[in-house]
Amino acid sequence: MNITPNEYNEMAKKASPGTKSYKTIPAAFLVGGLICTLGQLLNNVYMDAGMSKDTASTVTSITLIFAAALLTGLNLYNKIAKFAGAGTLVPITGFSNGVVSPALEFKSEGYVLGLGAKLFVIAGPVIVYGITASAVYGVILYLFKLY
């Protein structure tokens, strides 16, 4: 069966459901905003408890990572993501979900070949490209003395 690119595009359009932007954009905005608001609230609570700004920020990050991992483990994060879409990709919680999800999916294969091997399937490329980009940026700053 030979199909032209235009015919394939038409078939793909018919098979793909349309995005309801009027629903997805506000939901993403609302949930993403709630996650960020929760982070700021936690940061303020930790600073009011006597932590320095740097310590409170670190503890807030740890709390958000733990909460997202826990919600992923309880299969609640995926339900929130189904409603909010990109709103749950707020970097630290989305990254936590991206590490925990494949680990949970492959845990039946054992700790080494399942959990250990699949833990960074999604997050691995993010780490590699993040480190590479920061190294390139550091070299540029050093060469042009932009620090």
**What is the overall silhouette?**
extended
Provide the low-confidence segments as ranges. Answer: none
Distance between the termini: 59 Å
Helix content: over 70%
What percentage of the residues does DSSP assign to strands (E)?
A: under 5%
Coarse structural class? mainly alpha
Mean pLDDT: 88
The H-and-E topology, N to C, reads as HHHHHHH
Total E-strand runs: 0
Number of domains: 2
Tell me about the largest β-sheet: none
Helix count equals 7
Rg from C-alpha positions?
Answer: 20 Å
What does this structure look like?
With 147 residues, the chain is mainly alpha-helical. It folds into two domains: 23-90, no CATH class; 106-147. The chain is 77% helix and 0% strand. The protein has seven helices and no strands. The chain has helices spanning 5-15, 21-48, 53-73, 77-84, 91-105, 111-118, 123-144. Helix 3 packs parallel to helix 5 (91-105) and helix 5 (91-105) packs antiparallel against helix 6. It starts with a helix and ends with a helix. The mean pLDDT is 88.
